[in-house]
Amino acid sequence: MLVRRSLVAAALTAALALGGCAKRAEDSAAGPQADDMSLGNPNAKVSVVEYASASCPHCARFAIDVFPAFKAKYVDTGKVRFTLKEYLTDPQALAAAGFLLARCAGKDRYFEVLDAYFRGQDEMVQTGNVRAVLARIATSPGGLSEAQLDACMRDAVAEKALAARADRHMRIDKIGSTPTFVINGRRVEGEMTMPELDAAIAKAAG
Question: What is the value of pTM for the model shown?
């Protein structure tokens, strides 16, 4: 899977019709990796992994409507370890720009920046002004200057690492769509409601 260079320019010109969030899956499975982003107690009895794409409207809806309550109830209380695995769905330039920006902001701000990106997704689609949304998020909550944003979007090493992660999640973890959740090894494809998460977590906790 290739991520195009100069992602700000690519995202500005990308087709912004965010329809399905699917890619083809291949090969066999792998476990959590050190370069994934996580929140919560590393020794929690329950692990919830989400494969998500920053350009996926279904992932955005989960992030906005469900994740805050899930985080407050389970992650912040130490009951669940949450891990996000990055995946690229069309338009891939838009997805990549969101993940690169969140990574450039640093681990402490990663999830806050990604949340802001999900919340700005509709604006990017409706106005086509991707650069303005990127710049706003880069400043706050990202804490980045415009020059740092441009450098972030041109970072070939970071682009290559993102492409490798996304490829690993498609080929090795056999992920075919986003969001996909893995709760203590049990896979659930598609958006989950809070009641569905409650039931799945209770079952996983035993």
Answer: 0.88
